[in-house]
Design goal:
The chain is α/β, with parallel strands linked by helices. It has helices spanning 18-26, 49-53, 66-69, 119-124, 131-149, 154-161, 170-190, 216-229, 322-340, 376-389, 393-409, and strands at residues 10-14, 33-38, 42-44, 63-65, 76-80, 83-87, 92-95, 98-101, 104-107, 111-113, 126-127, 162-166, 200-204, 231-234, 239-242, 246-249, 254-256, 259-262, 266-268, 279-280, 285-287, 300-302, 307-308, 355-360, 363-367, 372-374. The strands form eight sheets. It has a five-stranded parallel sheet with strand order 5-2-1-9-22, with helices on one face. A five-stranded parallel sheet has the order 11-18-12-13-14. The longest helix is centred in the middle third of the chain and has 21 residues, at 170-190. The two termini are 37 Å apart. 46% of the residues are buried. Bound molecules: flavin-adenine dinucleotide. Flavin-adenine dinucleotide (FAD) binds next to helix 1, strand 2, helix 7 and helix 9. Residues 14-20, 37-40, 46-47, 49, 82-83, 108-110, 128-129, 170-171, 269, 271, 304-306, 320-323, 325 line the site of flavin-adenine dinucleotide.
């Protein structure tokens, strides 16, 4: 992989997500050599993927080049590659572009979409975990609008204008709200030849309320906001099958739809090579101790979504959201520097800053430890937090400009079919 030999201990980091980049930043220009490997050459700000899917933002405003993050780190290197195998006996990883040895290995590979073993749904539905997948959804939505204008029958048009979102967690709720805004503000202006009331957005959730990880107060408010926007919310509803057109569920709800977006869950994305019992099967996450050390290994660590650390407060592991990944990345960086200096390690304690979701303009819900609120102020807080969390000044400015423009004009300017999606 052409990494120069040096006297510094080498830390190989697999994955430039929230966990990986915070680790790498903490190790910048310290007495270690860092090799960051990712199969993409950019960091993805996943919380705003749904805005790319719904034409609100261009993809380059939520992605950030990984090389730019380390450009001033003299002892850090980036390689664009997929890690295929870890060989712990040789302290080596095998990648799509060759092998590299490590003194310390950090696995920060995050998650992938969980289809719960249903291959039919997997091959016909639209996941939303990466920028290309978000672009696929954007293209499909716009292509369906175009096809609806030339449909041969009511039934055919209905299938093009029925949008089904599976999973009423924050991702599904946010996407449903954003697609409803397309219906309410874009369809009437751009498509005079379509009747907006023919477009339906169905949000299907298996639990008895939307936003199950949040408070009941937030769920109730979010459901009300969704209904105000015209989203049809179906709780206690599981999709049983989808063949690309026909949606069947555990209830008597059945429909035809050309678009089924799968936001029903994730599972860990581990790399082959470590002992089988390091993985918690149910979640596909590595079992780690309070220092993020993978059980049974001294120099292999896992952080972020892929790590499962059980504590008294989190007996099932930390939630798979950005904050635990960021906080673990930072602490592990400090701990690796302590290891190098033979100093004792600090154990991880998660500081929960709260959770939030937005449903549309002026509509969001926020759960903090002491306060729970919804509406315009929550929406403002949501925007501020997301804007400040974006990586890169340029991205913040571009997103702020787009949001302001879209807010004033009731617009979603990125409605372009750049790369048509083929089913
Ligand atoms: C649509 C969506 C919306 C979300 N919204 C929110 C939100 O509003 N708030 C919130 O807190 N959290 C949100 N999350 C969750 C949050 O994004 C994750 O918890 C967070 O990204 C986890 O960070 P991570 O570093 O562990 O993994 P990731 O950010 O997923 O990064 C993993 C990296 O590893 C790379 N990789 C994986 N396997 C390999 C391999 N074999 N070789 C090389 N590279 C590899 C990937 O390319 C990726 O860059 C959302 C997630 C999604 C999908």
């Amino acid at each position: 992989m052409n990494i120069p030999e040096s006297n510094l201990p080498r830390v190989v980091v697999i994955g430039g997500g929230f966990a990986g980049i915070n680790l790498v930043k903490t190790l910048a220009n310290r007495n270690v050599q860092v090799v960051l490997i990712d199969k993409h050459n950019y960091h993805t700000f996943q919380p705003l993927l749904y805005q790319v899917s719904s034409s609100g933002l261009e993809p380059d405003s939520i992605a950030y080049p990984l090389r730019k993050i380390i450009k001033k780190h003299k002892t850090s290197f980036f390689r664009l590659a997929e890690v295929k195998q870890i060989v712990p006996e040789r302290n080596e990883v095998e990648t799509s572009i060759g092998n590299v040895s490590y003194d310390y290995l950090v696995i920060a590979t995050g998650t992938r979409t969980n289809f719960f073993g249903n291959k039919t749904i997997e091959s016909h539905s639209m996941p939303m975990k990466t920028v290309p997948q978000a672009l696929n959804i954007r293209s499909l939505i716009l292509q369906n609008f175009e096809k609806a204008t030339i449909a041969n029958s009511e039934k055919e048009r209905e299938a093009f204008l029925n949008f089904v979102i599976v999973g009423g967690g924050p991702t599904g709720v946010e996407l449903a709200g954003a697609i409803a805004e397309l219906k309410n503000h874009i369809l009437p202006r751009d498509y005079h030849d379509l009747n907006p009331s023919d477009m339906n957005i169905h949000l299907l959730e298996g639990a008895d309320r939307v936003l199950p990880p949040m408070s009941k107060h937030a769920s109730k408010k979010a459901e009300r906001f969704l209904k105000e926007l015209g989203v049809r919310v179906h709780c206690n509803t599981f999709v049983e099958n989808y063949d690309g057109l026909n949606v069947t569920t555990n209830s008597d709800l059945e429909m035809q739809s050309q678009t089924l977006i799968w936001a029903a869950g994730v599972t860990g994305s581990p790399v082959n090579g470590l002992k089988a019992d390091t993985l918690v099967e149910r979640a596909n996450r590595y079992r780690v101790n309070r220092y993020n050390q993978v059980e049974g290994y001294d120099n292999v660590f896992a952080i972020g979504d892929i790590a499962l650390m059980t504590t008294k407060a989190y007996p099932k592991g930390h939630p798979q959201v950005a904050q635990p990944a960021i906080q673990q990345g930072k602490l592990l960086g400090q701990n690796i520097l302590r290891l190098v200096r033979n100093k004792p390690l600090k154990s991880f304690t998660y500081y929960d800053k709260g959770s939030m979701a937005t449903i549309g303009r002026n509509k969001a819900v926020v759960d903090l430890k002491r306060y729970k609120f919804g509406g315009f102020f929550a929406w403002f807080v949501w925007m501020f937090v997301h804007l400040m969390s974006l990586v890169g000044f340029r991205n913040r400015v571009v997103v702020l400009f787009n949001w302001t423009y879209n807010y004033i004009n009731f617009d979603k300017a990125a409605r372009l079919i750049i790369r048509p999606f083929k089913k």
